[in-house]
Structure formats: C-alpha cells, structure tokens
Specification:
Number of helices: 11
Helix content: 40-55%
CATH superfamily: Hypothetical protein, domain 2
CATH topology: Endonuclease III, domain 1
Distance between the termini: 19 Å
CATH class: Mainly Alpha
Order of helices and strands: HHHHHHHHEHHEH
Structural class: mainly alpha
Length: 188
C-alpha cells in the first residue's frame, strides 16, 4: 500500500495520514481546533504536535472556543506550566486570541466553515502531485485565507500555516497520486 512520502513508520502518523489528513472537514468547532493545532505547529514538525494533541484538548477545554475566550492570565500561566504541550507563550496567548476572534466571526458570519471554505469556492481542490517536491508551501488560496483571518484578528495564520491547515482539513487534496488516499479522497 503506497502512502505519501512524508509518513514515517510511527503508527500514530500512519493512522493520521490514513484516516484524517485531507478528509474534508465542515464542522465549525473541529475547524477551529485544527486551526489552533496548526498554529501550535509553527516552526515544528507535525508529529511533535500530533503526539501532544490529546494534551492540547485536555488543557484547552476540548479546544472549545467559548471556554477558551474566557481565559485570563492566570489560566494562561497554568497552561504554560504543563509540559504536555509546546510551552510557547505567544502560541498559547495566540490560541486564546484566536478563540475570541472565532466568536466574533461566528457572530457576524454564522458559520466558520463557510467563512473558511470560501477561500476554495466551497469545493476541495484536487491536486495531482507526483512528488513531495512539487507540493507548494503556500498558494494564492492560502494567502487569501491568511489575509482574511488576520483581518479578523487571528494570529499564527500566515500563508504557510494556512496551507498546512487547508491540506489537513481537505480543502486541498495533496496526497500524492500514487498514494492510496489520493483516489479515495478525489472521489469522496
């Protein structure tokens, strides 16, 4: 069974690739959670965050934006004291800021999913990459998403982070053409 070349032999990584990565996500809160985790990844490998993902959910109340938006400095300090996550103050404070921005977007737009998916006209982009070297780190769509999110107060949402997010949530199908998941997701 062929998989994308970035997948290691780690069972956690294999399961993530085979079951989650690139599957279109439409749920508002799940999209928010994935955006937070992709922001936590900035400058790190995804496996680093994947191994700590359960701790993020535990420490950030299930990555519930309503609860996170209420965090005060004391709560942020408590989170920063837990070694189960990447203890980067800017990223933790950014996650809280993003929760507040999310609530404002929901109030205005009524759907975080529609708000984000507009960047790809509501339909996953079906790429046909043959090698990892062909896959861009950002695209005009991820640049547009980054600009949109930043204009609404989000942080840790540069074009590269947005493209990784778009790949993860199935806005783009970036499984290599010889990967078994490419065809499965292209026809889903």
């Amino acid at each position: 069974m062929n998989r994308c070349g970035w997948v290691s032999k780690d069972p956690l990584y294999i399961r993530y690739h085979d079951e989650e990565w690139g599957v279109p996500e439409w749920d508002d809160q799940k999209l928010f959670a994935k955006l937070i985790l992709d922001g936590a990844q900035a400058g790190l490998s995804w496996i680093t965050i994947l191994r700590r993902r359960d701790n993020y959910y535990r420490l950030f109340d299930g990555l519930d934006p309503i609860k996170m938006a209420r965090y005060d400095q004391s709560r942020i300090e408590g989170i920063l004291g837990d070694s189960g996550i990447i203890r980067n103050r800017l990223k933790v404070e950014g996650a809280v800021r993003n929760a507040r921005a999310y609530l404002k977007v929901i109030e205005r737009e009524d759907s975080f999913s529609r708000y984000l998916w507009q960047c790809v006209d509501g339909v996953p982009i079906q790429n046909k990459w043959k090698t990892l070297g062909e896959i861009p780190s950002q695209t005009p769509e991820s640049e547009a998403m980054s600009k949109l999110l930043r204009s609404d107060g989000f942080t840790f949402v540069g074009p590269t982070i947005c493209y990784a997010f778009m790949q993860a949530v199935g806005m783009v199908n970036d499984h290599l053409t010889d990967c078994f998941r490419h065809t499965e997701l292209a026809t889903a």
